[in-house]
Design goal:
Elements (H helix, E strand, L loop, with lengths): L6 E4 L3 E6 L11 E6 L1 H11 L4 E7 L3 H13 L6 E3 L7 E5 L7 E5 L16 H6 L2 E5 L8 H12 L9 E5 L10 H12 L4 E5 H8 L4 H10 L4 E5 L5 E4 L4 E4 L12 H15 L3 H16 L11 H10 L5
Parallel strand pairs: 1-4, 1-8, 2-6, 4-5, 8-9, 9-10, 10-11
Antiparallel strand pairs: 2-3, 6-7, 11-12, 12-13
Helix pairs in contact: 1-8, 6-7, 8-9, 9-10
């Protein structure tokens, strides 16, 4: 399936355990399981939009690892680069819909998650170098050996030229529970920013990466590092889209939030589609906002990723670009 690959994401995978009732987790009676993990969800979302995607990650030698592989195939994502980490369990994540707009997450990834044990022997180096869009996350740099392996992949690929159709994306993906300190994270983000041309994150994430939560200043600092596109997600205020030529704010879609999880991953998948389609940054952000809104209005993450027809319909209904 690797032939003709358009997107390779690297990083977190797991099984999301979602309550079927809102409120404190201690009071929940029933749960359902879903495929999850930022890098995995982005690959699934891109596949739902018709893109050939794969995820480089690892699972444990357990039934949940089997579930991950089968779910990826079902979503049309290439499972060829999903390895197995002996002696470790496939991670599970419990979600607490309390409140639904900003759910609590409880990660079971001890002593270390399989996806953070990626080493040189796990990497398809030719695909890393040649794939049109290569996607890494901040979490992937949180511990060794994944930290060194991910940076080695970025160096091997090299930062794409501004006029290239190739892109390397850093999803800032700040998860404080995975790091010893903000200062440690900033050092690792700084190293990765030398090798990417696109960065995406919210206010809290850009503050960790470049030292300010002000969207305009954060975008300026990212562009000053040589990036060609910076997207700062501002929640109800929309998304700030910055390129060397232009900065603009794209307004969000107003929806009733069922679960805030997964919206950012859907945003990322639509961002990938826009990059591969050669769209301008504003149009890409418009569709990314629509993708995030669709997923936020549903309970699941991977299962809720929209099709291109759904995006087109929502954008048209909101009066955006066709």
């Amino acid at each position: 399936m690797g032939s003709g690959l358009e997107l390779l994401t690297v990083g977190r995978v797991g099984v999301d355990i979602y309550p079927q009732q809102e409120g404190p987790l201690k009071d929940v009676a029933t749960f359902a399981k879903y495929l999850g993990g930022t890098a995995t969800n982005v690959a699934v979302g891109a596949a739902r939009l018709g893109r050939r995607s794969a995820v480089l990650t690892k699972v444990g030698p357990d039934p949940f690892g089997d579930f991950v592989r089968e779910a990826l195939v079902g979503f049309g994502v290439d499972p060829s680069y999903v390895g197995t980490a002996p002696g470790l369990n496939t991670p599970v994540v419990f979600c607490e819909l309390n409140p639904a707009e900003d759910p609590g997450l409880y990660f079971y990834r001890a002593p270390i998650a399989p996806d953070l044990t990626l080493g040189d022997d796990d990497v398809p180096w030719e695909q890393v170098r040649d794939v049109p869009v290569f996607w890494v996350t901040g979490t992937g740099a949180s511990v060794e050996p994944s930290r060194t392996t991910q940076l080695a992949m970025l160096k091997h690929r090299g930062r794409p030229d501004p006029d290239s159709s190739r892109h390397t994306v850093l999803d800032l993906d700040w998860r404080p529970m995975f790091w010893s300190s903000v200062d440690e994270a900033r050092v690792e983000y700084d190293a990765m920013l030398d090798h990417v041309d696109v960065a995406v994150g919210n206010r809290a994430e850009v503050e960790v990466a470049v030292g300010t939560s002000d969207p305009h200043e954060a975008a300026r600092r990212l562009l000053d590092r040589g990036l060609q596109l910076a997207m700062v997600k501002m929640g109800a205020d929309g998304v700030l889209v910055a390129t060397p030529e232009r900065t603009q704010v794209v307004t969000p879609h107003r929806i009733k939030v069922v679960c805030g999880l997964g919206a950012g991953d859907a945003f990322g998948a639509a961002l990938v589609h826009g990059l591969l389609s050669g769209w301008d940054a504003g149009r890409t952000a418009e569709y990314a906002n629509a993708a995030g809104a669709i997923v936020a209005s549903q309970l699941a993450c991977a299962d809720a990723m929209p099709t291109l027809d759904e995006l087109v319909e929502l954008v048209a209904r909101q009066g955006g670009p066709a």
